[in-house]
Amino acid sequence: MKLRCDGKDYEGNPAGAKRLEDGAWLVNGKRVRVARTAAGIEAWCGGHVWRLEAAEDGARRKAGKGHEGIVSPMTGKVRQVLAKAGDRVDAGAVLVVVEAMKMEYRVTAPHAGVLTKVSAVAGALVEMGQVLAELDETT
After folding, report:
1. Residue 9: CA atoms inside 13 Å, Cβ hemisphere, count?
2. Contacts from 7-10 at CB under 8 Å and sequence distance 24+?
3. Are residues 122 and 81 in contact, defined by beta-carbon separation less than 8 angstroms?
4. Domain, as residue range, for 14
5. pLDDT at 45 > cutoff 50
6. Nearest-angstrom CA–CA distance, 15 and 71
7. Residue 14 shares a structural domain with residue 33
8. What's the pLDDT at 57?
9. Helix and strand counts by DSSP (H, E) for the chain
10. What pLDDT is recorded for position 104?
């Protein structure tokens, strides 16, 4: 498997890594949470966050022609929805805030565009990888 971290490419051998029932991975005896986010694939372990992307194809989920699905990085509760469908957003704009285990995660726009759909609702529970919004890449 090829991964890119901080602009460097790595060959990863998943041998010995075990996926756990809650979606985390056990790697060399350490529990690592991994999620696809708007920024790429992120891994959390020991208070550190690493942003990764598959070197072959990037890490964003396509939500339909010209649209990019922006997903929740973790299972948790939507604390705030800061954007609505039709909004023009800049790259890095905070769209949704998700909270889990007293940790807040700001879900941001990966690039500038127009939000075609915002399905996140404040107070709702969301699953890791669930599409929270769709960003039109073509406008």
Report:
1. 8
2. 9/55
3. yes
4. 2-54
5. yes
6. 27
7. yes
8. 40
9. 0, 16
10. 87
Could you please report the per-residue DSSP string of 111-133? SSEEEEEE---TT-EE-TT-EEE
* Strands, sheet with 30-37, edge to edge from the N-terminal-most edge strand: 8-11, 2-5, 48-54, 40-45, 30-37, 25-27, 18-19
Residues forming a β-bridge with 43: 34, 50
- Looking at the structure, do residues 65 and 14 belong to the same domain, yes or no? no
pTM, full prediction: 0.56
**Domain count of the chain?**
2
Please state, in angstroms and rounded to a whole number, the distance separating the CA atoms of residues 25 and 100.
Answer: 18
Cα separation, 126 vs 139, whole angstroms = 28
CATH number at residue 91: 2.40.50.100
Together in a domain, 72 and 120: yes
pLDDT at 61 over 50: no
Q: Which one, of 71, 64, 75, lies nearest residue 130 by Cα? A: 71
Within this chain, do residues 29 and 69 fall inside the same structural domain, yes or no? no
Calculate what percentage of the chain has a pLDDT beyond 90.
27
d(CA 125, CA 84): 18
List the beta bridge partners of residue 115: 135
Q: How much is the pLDDT for 118?
A: 95
Shared-domain flag, residues 35 and 83: no
